[in-house]
Predict the structure of DUF3305 domain-containing protein.
Amino acid sequence: MTGQAERRGVGITVERQRIDNPWVDARWRVTGALPALPDRAPWTVLAQDGECTGYYAGAAEIVLHPGETENYVENLKGGHPMLYVILRRCAEEPGLRLLAVTVDPGEVDAHSDAGDDLIEAIPLPPDLAAWMRDFVARHHTERPFYKRQRDRADPEALARRAPVAHSGKDQRHG
């Protein structure tokens, strides 16, 4: 069964904790996902307690694609589905920006090769997990595994060849 991609908005909260380290001034961690999008600007301070500051990082859209259900099944399989939040370092304060939110482990692998992104997995909120399960139930089809047949190697292709003997006469002038 084919169909259209489905989208859901989610708000992300993060925490910045100052640390005593000569190379890094703070440790960031994702603290939650809000099912409804708050009426706040990204990077609004939510709470401040000594060395910790809580922020509303902003809103992102989770997109489920019918062709990616195998990855969603993999996420759901363990009984503890995860929401992956990808933050990217930037020059503007507070030093990070919300890049993406996904439930697709394959997408996370692609972002992990990017280098300096902060990728954190948090438990998927129950309402989003139910939405994902429903999507998978409507769109997933098991694909049989086919082992690819390799081309047979030609043992003569790499064999040493004897040098071609020339008769002393130039073949062109007979």
Summary: The longest strand covers residues 6-18. The radius of gyration is 27 Å. The chain has one domain: 6-139. Residues 6-139 form one domain.
